[in-house]
Design a protein that fits this description.
The chain is built from 13 helices and five strands. The protein is mainly α and 297 residues long.
Length: 297
C-alpha cells in the first residue's frame, strides 16, 4: 500500500522531522562508537572534526602488509587512497602557493611545491601528526622509514578527508592543522634542498671531478619495492653513500652526505691531493705524447 502526502501537509512534515531525528540519532551512535576506540579518538583530535564515514580513515591507515579482504574477496589497503590523496595534496598546495606568491613564475611555484610534498617532508609531517602510532602495518619501524609508509599514510589520510568531507574541508585541514603548525614556507623558499646540484656546483668551482655511481639495485622481499644504492666519488675518493626507493632519491641522499663530509679538512685535503696528482699525471702524459710525435717526425 502506497501512502501519498500533499506538498505541505502536516503529515509529511511530521515524517520529515521523524526521519531527521532518526538520522541525527544514527550519527550520534556513530560518534559514540568512534570515541570508544582510542586510536581513532586520537585521530579525531588530530583532524579537528568527527568523521562522517570512519571506514575511509581506517583504510587510510591500513598498510598493504596488513591488507584485508572485503566481501567480494578483494584485498583492501591504503594504496588507492594514497593515489587519490597525492593528487588532492598537490592541488591544495598549488592552490595555496598560487595565491600566496602572486608575482612568482611557474618554475618557482613548482619548485616550492615539490619541496613541500617530497617524501621526506611527508614522512616528517606524518610523525608530527602522530600517524605512525595509528598505522596498521606488519613492517618493522626501520622499513616504515625506508619505504615512506608514514608519508604514504599521510597522503591516504588526505584522500580520506576529501572523500568524507570534500575539497574545501580538506584544504582547511591542511592549512590550519598542517601548514600553519608544521610548515614554514618562507624557510623552505630560502633553503636549497637540491643537494645533487649543490654538490656539482661546489665541485665545478674547485675543478674537482665528481660522479654519481649506482652501485646496486635490489628488490626488498617484504615491501616488494626496489632499493637503489648510490655513491658519490670525487677524485677517486668515495665521499658519500645514499639509499632510496628511486635513483634520484639515492643520489640526493648521497650528495647530502657528501656535502657534510666536505666540511672536514682532512677529507678536503685528500681530494685536493688527488686532483693535483691527476693534473700532474695528465701533464706528464701530454709531454710524453708530444715527445713521441717529435721522434716520429
Amino acid at each position: 500500500m502506497r501512502v501519498s502526502f500533499s506538498k505541505n501537509s502536516p503529515s509529511k512534515k511530521k515524517l520529515q522531522n521523524f526521519l531527521s531525528l532518526i538520522k541525527a540519532f544514527i550519527n550520534k551512535i556513530k560518534v559514540l562508537s568512534f570515541h570508544r576506540k582510542e586510536p581513532y579518538f586520537v585521530l579525531k583530535n588530530t583532524l579537528g572534526f568527527t568523521p562522517n564515514t570512519i571506514e575511509y580513515y581506517k583504510l587510510a591507515l591500513l598498510h598493504r602488509s596488513s591488507s584485508v579482504k572485503n566481501d567480494k574477496g578483494i584485498s583492501q589497503d591504503n594504496e588507492r587512497l594514497e593515489f587519490l590523496g597525492d593528487a588532492i595534496l598537490n592541488s591544495i598546495v598549488s592552490d595555496v602557493l598560487y595565491n600566496r606568491f602572486q608575482d612568482k613564475k611557474e618554475g618557482f611555484l613548482t619548485n616550492i611545491r615539490s619541496k613541500i610534498v617530497q617524501r621526506s617532508s611527508l614522512d616528517q609531517l606524518a610523525l608530527e601528526l602522530g600517524l605512525d602510532k595509528l598505522i596498521v602495518s606488519s613492517s618493522k619501524n626501520n622499513l616504515q622509514r625506508a619505504f615512506h609508509i608514514n608519508g604514504n599514510a599521510f597522503e591516504a589520510l588526505i584522500g580520506a578527508i576529501y572523500l568524507d568531507q570534500g575539497y574545501e574541508k580538506c584544504k582547511d585541514f591542511f592549512e590550519k592543522k598542517v601548514l600553519e603548525q608544521y610548515i614554514d614556507i618562507d624557510k623552505i623558499v630560502k633553503k636549497e634542498s637540491n643537494f645533487k646540484s649543490k654538490l656539482l656546483e661546489w665541485a665545478q668551482k674547485r675543478k674537482f671531478n665528481a660522479t654519481f655511481v649506482l652501485t646496486n639495485v635490489e628488490l626488498d622481499k617484504e615491501s616488494n619495492l626496489p632499493v637503489f644504492y648510490t655513491k658519490v666519488v670525487i677524485e677517486t675518493i668515495n665521499v658519500g653513500n645514499g639509499v632510496g626507493n628511486s635513483k634520484k632519491e639515492s643520489q640526493q641522499k648521497a650528495a647530502r652526505n657528501a656535502l657534510k663530509k666536505m666540511k672536514k679538512k682532512d677529507i678536503l685535503d685528500s681530494i685536493t691531493q688527488k686532483k693535483e696528482a691527476r693534473i700532474v699525471e695528465f701533464s706528464i702524459s701530454q709531454s710524453d705524447s708530444s715527445t713521441e710525435n717529435q721522434i716520429k717526425i
